[in-house]
Design brief:
CATH class of the largest domain: Alpha Beta
Number of strands: 13
Oligomer: single chain
CATH superfamily of the largest domain: Glycogen Phosphorylase B
Number of domains: 2
CATH architecture of the largest domain: 3-Layer(aba) Sandwich
Structural class: alpha/beta
Strand order of the largest sheet: 3-2-1-4-5-6-7
Radius of gyration: 20 Å
CATH topology of the largest domain: Rossmann fold
Length: 369
């Protein structure tokens, strides 16, 4: 069968790659074409557009980049129609992907959606559109099944694909030596993969490094940028820059400062105590505070439905508070409490196998369409 996938961010690229790998086991004749990234490209098929040209963060940034977004939408629709896939698989990225789903449905192309849009967070009536344009929804958060049921929609819960990614990870045995990290304990800085979040968060993260002479700091750098780009932030600071090595870094990290997003959950799965940070544009944040209906922004807290990790949002994301929270989780009761709570999180998430389960369901659904 012909599978067309659309992933618009680094996390979607990761999950898309694992899904392609799993689909190849189910379907020996599988042919892939996609909007995605480097990880998907490694698994084969044809990359049409890289997610680096697609990811915009926040309401304001989306408005400022509308011309590019519309151009990408048009390009994607044209390519889907020309290729005529048997099934379209959309991975998260709802602002873009729900428009693609509507287009595909109008053109009689089956639509599978992997990793539900966060409709439970705001504008819940979007479920009505999802019911209309999506044939099969595959959810990765346990509470989403009940939420969709309230709206009269049956979905498949497949578990979380990050469990697959962590389970398949093989650590580099001489990682410290390769990157000259020495013997000091490591604090990981995960400022995200999008330009806007890096530029807002990394300076705050770096502002506390001078206060920890007994630790070494390392940045999990996004592969879509180069060393020169990061040097404008690091300057003369003694900070290591590591590309394509986030899991290796988390494997040895003592603690982490993490941009809100998928990385917060990845950090928890490696049992690394963390401080979660987020900064958006002033207008974006004002709109979000009016519309968003959830208590937390980090996946760690959302899944357990209680505060496990501290979230420093907007004006709270500053040198003083980041420093205070980091010290709190490096030693003593704060560290112990967070690590114990991670065990509760892992219990709720279940076991690996989301990619395989999703691939099986997609293949079986298409066999009986």
């Amino acid at each position: 069968m012909k599978y067309y996938l659309v992933a618009g961010e680094a996390s979607g690229d990761l999950h898309g790659a694992n899904l392609i790998k799993a689909l190849k086991k189910e379907d020996a004749q599988a042919d892939f074409r996609y909007f995605g990234g480097d990880k998907m490209q490694v698994e084969g098929g044809e990359l049409v557009k890289h997610y680096a040209d697609m990811a915009f963060m926040g309401f304001t940034e989306v408005v400022l980049n509308l011309r590019t977004i519309f151009k990408n939408l048009k390009s994607c629709k044209t390519d889907i129609l020309a290729w005529q896939p048997d099934v379209l698989i959309l991975i998260d990225f709802p602002g873009f992907n729900l428009k693609i789903a509507e287009f595909a449905k109008a053109n009689n192309i089956k639509v599978c959606y992997y990793i539900s849009p966060k409709v439970w967070a705001w504008n819940q009536k979007r479920v009505l559109k999802i019911k209309r344009v999506v044939d099969h929804m595959f959810c990765i958060l346990p509470f989403e099944v009940g939420f969709y049921k309230e709206w009269g929609m049956k979905v498949d819960y497949v578990g979380n694909p990050l469990l697959d990614a962590v389970d398949q990870f093989n650590a580099e045995p001489d990682f410290r030596e390769q990157h000259h990290l020495g013997d000091k304990k490591v604090i990981a800085l995960l400022p995200g993969s999008r330009k806007q979040e890096i530029e807002r968060l990394l300076p705050v993260m770096l502002s506390i490094t001078g206060q920890y002479p007994d630790y070494v700091f390392a940045i999990a750098a996004a592969p879509t940028f180069n060393e020169t780009y990061y040097k404008q932030f690091t300057g003369t600071k003694k900070v290591h820059l590591l590309f394509n090595a986030t899991y290796d870094l988390l494997q040895i990290a003592e603690a982490a400062i993490v941009a809100s997003g998928t990385a917060t959950l990845e950090t928890a799965l490696f049992k690394v105590p963390q401080v979660v940070v987020y900064k958006g544009g002033a207008i974006s944040i004002a709109i979000a505070r009016m519309l968003v209906k959830i208590k937390f922004i980090s996946l760690v807290n959302l899944i357990v439905n209680k505060k496990i990790v501290t979230e420093l949002i907007q004006e709270d994301c500053n040198t003083q508070k980041v420093n205070e929270e980091l010290r709190f989780i490096l030693n003593g009761a704060g560290r112990t409490s967070m690590l114990n709570n991670y065990d509760e999180l892992l219990g709720l998430m279940g076991k690996p196998g989301a990619s395989e389960k999703t691939a099986q369901l997609i293949y079986n659904y298409m066999q009986h369409k």
